[in-house]
Amino acid sequence: MAKMAHGLADDLASTILLATDRPVLVAPAMNPKMWTAAPTTRNVATLKADGIHFIGPMAGEMAEKNEAGFGRMAEPLDIVAAAEALFADKDQAKPLAGKTAIVTSGPTHEPIDPVRYIANRSSGRQGHAIAAALAKLGAKVTLVSGPVTIPDPAGVTTVHVERAEEMLEAVTSGLPADIAVMVAAVADWRVASSSGQKIKKQPGEAPAPLLLTENPDILKTVGHHEQRPTLVIGFAAETQNVEENGRAKLARKGADMIVANDVSPETGIMGGSRNSVKIISADGIEAWPDLDKDEVAARLAALIAARLAGA
Ligand code: C5P
């Protein structure tokens, strides 16, 4: 920052910074005493006057022991969000501005005991991409995510849950909303009474049977809710009779649209990066080509915007 403020260009990075006419975002990280030092304060003021953008620093723990205060680097995802906002196409249409959306994503984990759970192969990629695509069109998005290993999308409020019952609670407390897109692969069943202690193997005895009970259907609850969103969209992951099952689901769940896909293992869709879907609604069925999950998300967000606009 000191070099930037004085136009010193004696290495590749500082030379590029002096030569560029593109926006520059600085994410400073330094010891709190350095951050509040007079030269730093002067340099930051100079850079701000020059139109340089800043994210952070934040308050918190430092790398050095027993040092805490202002100087901690902003969280990487916040830096990404700030960079995206800075470089966003300011002319991009925001047809969903003023609209709110709730999206579910990922699997749920249903505990058997404190160390074991029932789960599925959902990665959360499709649901997360849809949340991000809706936000990009201007919607205020709450993403309710089951346990996944991918990062929270930028520009979206993410609520992390584990179990289907927690997911339902997070979704219904997010109502009212204009749009609901239920993408999560919610476990159909949970263990009727999960054990508070680890279930132990008993030598010579048969394994304890697992008694299952049905989980709440989140999509169906939202589709029939008194605060039902204007547009309720569900997914139908099927391995056979994709269209037929999708149509039946539309009626049963009270949804306006079902995005049906074939998740047979040979398709590589579950957990993969591509998706091949059919859009089922009262208007009929539209088959989309094989697309990257981000492209499916962008198309779906555009379709949602068109539907809400009455197109
Ligand atoms: O009935 P099925 O699980 O095939 O329906 C899939 C759709 O319903 C998905 O949109 C999924 O997110 C939603 N669903 C749900 N809660 C459940 C089961 C499914 O929201 N318990």
A few lines on this structure:
By secondary structure, this protein is an alpha/beta fold. It is built from ten helices and 18 strands.
Write the layout of secondary structure elements.
Layout: H1 2-6, H2 12-19, E1 25-26, H3 32-36, H4 38-49, E2 53-54, E3 58-61, E4 68-72, H5 76-87, E5 100-105, E6 110-113, E7 116-118, H6 125-136, E8 140-145, E9 157-160, H7 164-172, E10 179-182, E11 189-191, E12 212-214, H8 218-223, E13 231-238, H9 242-253, E14 257-262, E15 274-275, E16 277-281, E17 284-287, E18 291-292, H10 293-308
Helix pairs in contact: 6-10
This protein binds cytidine-5'-monophosphate.
Residues 104, 164, 182-184, 186, 215, 217-219, 234-236, 249 line the site of cytidine-5'-monophosphate.
Q: What's the architecture of the largest domain in CATH terms?
A: 3-Layer(aba) Sandwich
Going by CATH, what is the homologous superfamily of the largest domain?
CoaB-like
Tell me what portion of residues adopts beta-strand conformation.
15-25%
Proportion of residues in helical segments: 25-40%
Q: What is the H/E string?
A: HHEHHEEEHEEEHEEHEEEHEHEEEEEH
Domain tally: 2
